Amino acid sequence: MSILRRRSKVQNSSDFSDSGKDREDDKKDRRKEKPKRKQDGGERRIKKWTCVDSCCWFIGFTCSMWWFLLFLYNAIPSSFPQYLTEAITGPLPDPPGVKLKKEGLTAKHPVVFVPGIVTGGLELWEGHQCADGLFRKRLWGGTFGEVYKRPLCWVEHMSLDNETGLDPPGIRVRPVSGLVAADYFAPGYFVWAVLIANLARIGYEEKTMYMAAYDWRISFQNTEVRDQTLSRIKSNIELMVATNGGRKVVVIPHSMGVLYFLHFMKWVEAPAPMGGGGGTDWCAKHIKAVMNIGGPFLGVPKAVSGFFSNEARDIAAARAYAPGFWDKDVFGLQTLQHLMRMTRTWDSTMSMIPKGGDTIWGSLDWSPEGLYNCGARKPKNNHTHTAIPNGKGVSSFKEGVNYGRIISFGKDAAELHSSKIERIDFRDAVTVKKPANNCDIWTEYQEMGVGGIKAVVDYKVYTAGSVLDLLHFVAPKLMKREGAHFSHGIADNLDDPKYKHYKYWSNPLETKLPNAPEMEIYSMYGVGIPTERAYVYKLASTAECSIPFQIDTSVTGGSENSCLKDGVFSVNGDETVPVLSAGFMCAKGWRGKTRFNPSGIRTYIREYNHAPPANLLEGRGTQSGAHVDILGNFALIEDIIRVAAGATGEDLGGDQVHSDIFKWSEKINLQL
């Protein structure tokens, strides 16, 4: 039996060793097959990698970086950025409020802010089903979260009725009230916040500061018809004067707010029901000074390109770089068409169409700016109290530009003498009416037909005078409302009763300033930044549902200092408003006693040379002359605080001029 047990053990052990060897062989085989499977699987994963994966990774990376930076922002002491900046650039100057408080300045005159277009917040009070949950949340300003979450719903609620220019049925969007309406446009992007903070340094608070917020989309008179905004501004100014010992207010309008307040000054004097019934001496009793910042008194060429093709320099560059995103149906959105449909319902934008026609802006072969060198170097510092005598600004002339041709089709049309350009009048062209439901997104170009579109191109060149006819041709519904609410001409006789109508009140060339000889008017704006003045266009497409015209970004001047770059002619300005528009009225139109300024209100020009921030730690800089960033310019803030504390224009040093505004103004043959 023992022998049998030993044989059984030996056999079992041999079987076990054999099975062990088999298992080891199987393991080796599996090890050999494993890399192959990994390799095969890797190949499959690479093949399955899609654009969605890339987007997810990009979004994940962006969010991770954002949260990391947000963590650093909250973890690092608030004084660290200033410490780091001073370590790099040296000690920072005191903010104007701190500096002037040390000089003993205190709050005196109440201050009224009048925001410009797009910088004021708008919130939803009533909407359609797609806007559920958005009651009293900002549709404009803040984080703009709804633009990303429900873009078509957002466009629908930000648009106005294309016939009336007022609310569409079932939608009510209203301006945010209080200082928060326009202190910040978006988180971290200040508008009025820096100026408000510096005024607070010398004793101002909410009872002595008032934000005259309004719905910047609708026409100026309609802000009164719908919201009684003009009446509210009048009442608040009267209250601030009454509760501050009779001290008059200092009004600070910015951008389109400058035109809005011009309208207000005529409205408040005019008898009811069209006006506020305040009488001809209301402004004299209640306003010390109007300190206009970046005012487009005579309009801006950028408004023309906006109406014509919904473009400006930056949009044109993006459209050329990524045409599929802007022009085609991407993710169900035809971006440019949606924006055009929306913005063409905003009647207020028509107030910024160039005013004065060829007399102000130039003709086919002449413009006030004449020769201008866009590559000229500008001084980098502002000397706040250094006045430069009228007409003695630093000249920077070099090459001839036909700035009077606001729109040209082709480079030759922009540069050739007018006698060498063959033009076919577009006004007699026959347009083909088509049903609005041919396209998913309706624009007025769909009603022109191919013949009408080609007729626009064949006219070749448009000046400020013919631009109005062009807009009537391509956007008849828009311009029908324009004729009811705005005017862009030059008055022959300001005593004509027709100029008592409100549509003339925002045009300084068709209305008189108030009878307030002790009041002061300032024009304060940045200079030294290339600013859009004229455009070279091309026919982009005759497809039925597209925007047919496009700025030709391939067109550039022949020299390094050329004012023609990427299809846009530039001139001196603040990046949005050319010097001519911002400065002419205070340089000539209102200077002394004129038919536009019969009481002789004193006018001053205060120009601020643009100096970009030295490094990223300076943010948007303290010497910026850019259209919005100038609200953080220390020199401008200092001027405003001094006037609010009781100073006059003469105390500031009179005019401060760095451009050729006085020379350009003298070239304009305007009856005064």
Description:
The strands form 5 sheets. The protein has a 6-stranded parallel sheet, with helices on both faces. Helix 4 (96-102) packs parallel to helix 7 (193-201). 38% of the residues lie in helices and 12% in strands. The model is unreliable at 1-10 and 377-399 (pLDDT under 50). It starts with a helix and ends in a 6-residue tail after the last helix. The chain has 672 residues and is an alpha/beta fold. It is built from 24 helices and 19 strands.
Per-chain topology:
Layout: H1 2-48, H2 51-75, H3 80-89, H4 96-102, E1 111-114, E2 122-126, E3 138-140, H5 145-149, H6 151-158, E4 172-175, E5 184-186, E6 189-190, H7 193-201, E7 209-211, H8 220-227, H9 229-242, E8 249-253, H10 256-269, H11 282-286, E9 287-293, H12 301-309, H13 313-321, H14 323-327, H15 335-343, H16 357-361, E10 371-372, E11 399-400, E12 407-409, H17 411-415, H18 449-458, E13 461-462, H19 464-474, H20 476-485, E14 520-527, E15 529-539, E16 549-551, E17 564-565, E18 568-573, H21 579-589, E19 602-609, H22 634-644, H23 649-652, H24 661-666
